[in-house]
Design goal:
138 residues; alpha+beta; 2 domains; four-stranded mixed sheet; three-stranded antiparallel sheet; 22% strand; globular
Length: 138
């Protein structure tokens, strides 16, 4: 029997973890940043920034792709033309860099929506506006 046959029903959708969620990995208990839905109708799992790469690596090894439901990186790039944005192939982290009046600013995140929110907050902080809170993906 194929060892991965039970994985065929996985949906593997990632979204922003709700405020106050704790990491589901072992005994971590750190604040979670990513929520993973594995199957429709089943409870989701929340993971912190330290454990999320391990989870995605395991899923990728088993032939699964995690879909980021918070947005598309090409859309984020179009919204923030003055930012350099790339993704680390080893960790999956998105990085964004820009300069405000000669002062370098960087933001990192595992999800497009989280990266977008961090970049908006950095731009609003630069202009003295109150940052908008990121909306949760559904």
């Amino acid at each position: 029997m194929n060892e991965h046959a039970g994985l065929a029903g996985l949906v593997c959708q990632a979204s922003i973890a709700p405020p106050g969620a704790e990491c589901a990995y072992g005994t971590c208990q750190a604040t979670a940043t990513v929520r993973l839905m594995l199957r429709h109708g089943h409870p989701p799992y929340d993971y912190c920034e330290v454990d999320w790469p391990r989870v995605t690596d395991t899923l990728r090894t088993r032939g699964q792709t995690v879909t980021d439901t918070t947005g598309d990186m090409w859309t984020v790039r179009a919204e923030f033309a003055n930012w350099e944005i790339w993704q680390s192939k080893s960790s999956g982290v998105y990085y964004a860099l820009t300069s405000f009046g000669g002062r370098g600013v960087s933001v990192h995140a595992y999800l497009a929506g989280t990266l977008r929110a961090g970049m908006r907050a950095a731009e609003q902080n630069r202009t003295g506006q109150a940052p908008r809170l990121p909306q949760r993906a559904r």
